[in-house]
Amino acid sequence: MTAGPGAGDALFDNEDLAVDLPPEESAQNAGVVDVAALDPALADPDAVAEAVAPQREIRVDEGEALLRTEGLTVKFGGLVALDDVSFEIRRGEILGLIGPNGAGKTTCFNAITGVYKPSGGTVTFDGRPLAKTKRNEITRLGIARTFQNIRLFGEMTALENVVVGTDARHRTSVPGAIFRTARHRREERDAVERGMALLEFVGIAPRAVEKARNLSYGDQRRLEIARALATEPKLLCLDEPAAGFNPSEKAALMDLIRKIRDDGFTVLLIEHDMRLVMGVTDRIVVLEFGRKIADDVPAAIRENPAVIAAYLGVPDDEPA
Ligand SMILES: Nc1ncnc2c1ncn2[C@@H]1O[C@H](COP(=O)(O)OP(=O)(O)OP(=O)(O)O)[C@@H](O)[C@H]1O
Ligand SMILES: [Mg+2]
């Protein structure tokens, strides 16, 4: 991360500001951080974007399939939540995954990220089959996600929540962590620097030392995205990131998702809001009752009779 002369080292050189503030102290300090005073580099959007950009090697070329599902099937007892679903996510694109409630969107995320073991089919990520790959290993391979219901460490500060995400990637041994070796201190400082840059990137750096549970709902959603980005994912999966947002918050979120893609990430987006999905995605996969019913560019999806029928759904006089 080269962010102008000396900027890399300047970010958060003061270790006293690091993550291990005791809870009482962080509560007292809770308030607004003047980001530019903390480090001038954080006031420069280009420097921030540079610090956030993924450094990781990706095997597939731009535009090739980064992730591919083939015949992906997930069953819960008698219920087929995902039924023989094949699609691909190309590197560098924003792919929308839509469908009515219960269509299988979150299940698809869960199958991709190793939460559920598929009953059938395969998932290939960056040239590698994910069968039998454990959840934390999938994170390390480069798939990160946010959750439909926000999951944050409420008693930790915003910055600490992001640094926890960074930890998934930097591995100091336990003895190293206990004795606070030079390497561990350096890793910790890097994580804090990157954490601050990520908070700035998603637009909540001034709230860095606020406890996550005290953040506004919208800021919590942004914090979840920052935490997912902290794992340096090749693929970022967002499960209804705009749920509960008003129109201006939705517009701001669309800008953020575009910025994330422009910074070199590939994005899989589950979203109910059609305007948002149509406005931000390159391609859309539509699920209904666990099956894929369409896979096309937004303009074609909008006109697709099967999609329109799925959304207009059951006539009002019939029970859903
Ligand atoms: N752990 C589970 N055990 C049993 N059934 C489940 C489980 N998870 C999901 N399902 C069922 O699988 C189907 C698909 O659910 P899923 O959560 O994937 O839908 P979705 O498209 O994300 O819907 P929504 O838009 O409401 O979030 C639903 O019928 C749901 O009830
Ligand atoms: Mg869902």
Automatic annotation (TrEMBL):
UniProt GO molecular function: ATP binding
SMART domains to which the protein is assigned, alphabetical: AAA
Keyword check for Nucleotide-binding: yes
Keyword terms of this UniProt record: ATP-binding, Nucleotide-binding, Transport
PROSITE patterns per record: ABC_TRANSPORTER_1 (PS00211), ABC_TRANSPORTER_2 (PS50893)
One Pfam family this sequence matches: BCA_ABC_TP_C
UniProt domain ABC transporter: residue ranges: 67-314
CDD domains the record matches: ABC_Mj1267_LivG_branched
This protein's name: ABC transporter ATP-binding protein
Organism per entry: Rhodococcus gannanensis
